[in-house]
Design goal:
The chain contains 1 helix and 10 strands. By secondary structure, the chain is mainly beta.
Length: about 130
């Protein structure tokens, strides 16, 4: 049998996740193939990723602090702190912080794999 997910409890102290840019991964694919979990810090007046869709992943967001504006299938959705947004597979979306205050987002991708793609993009030569 091949190596499966870790059977160990995963504990990540504050600030000790795997970081790429403004994203800190707390749950990686190597720990569980079921989901990735990250914290996204967004500075004021910053755009997120270009519009995209995930073929097979749910992309879930919980706004911890600040306000994020989502563009989902051509529709704009304001999401202040305490808002949950679930983007199903195949749905075109992007997001950004259009306010003058920082924002912080809990982001979950299920199933896992997003971390590997994002971290691989970081490793590619420019």
């Amino acid at each position: 049998m091949g190596a499966g997910p870790s059977r160990e409890v995963v504990v990540i102290p504050p600030g000790a996740g795997v970081r790429t840019g403004n994203v800190e991964f707390l749950a990686l694919t190597e720990a569980s193939p079921r989901f990735n979990l990250s914290i996204v810090d967004m500075a004021p007046h910053r755009d997120g990723p270009p519009g995209h869709a995930h073929a097979e992943e749910d992309d879930a967001f919980y706004i911890l602090d600040g306000e994020i504006t989502f563009e989902v299938d051509g529709r704009e959705v304001r999401a202040p702190a305490g808002t949950f947004v679930l983007v199903p597979p195949g749905t075109h979306h992007t997001f950004g912080n259009r306010t003058g205050e920082p924002a912080r987002i809990l982001n979950i991708h299920a199933p896992a794999g997003f971390d590997r793609r994002l971290l691989a993009d970081e490793d590619e030569p420019s």
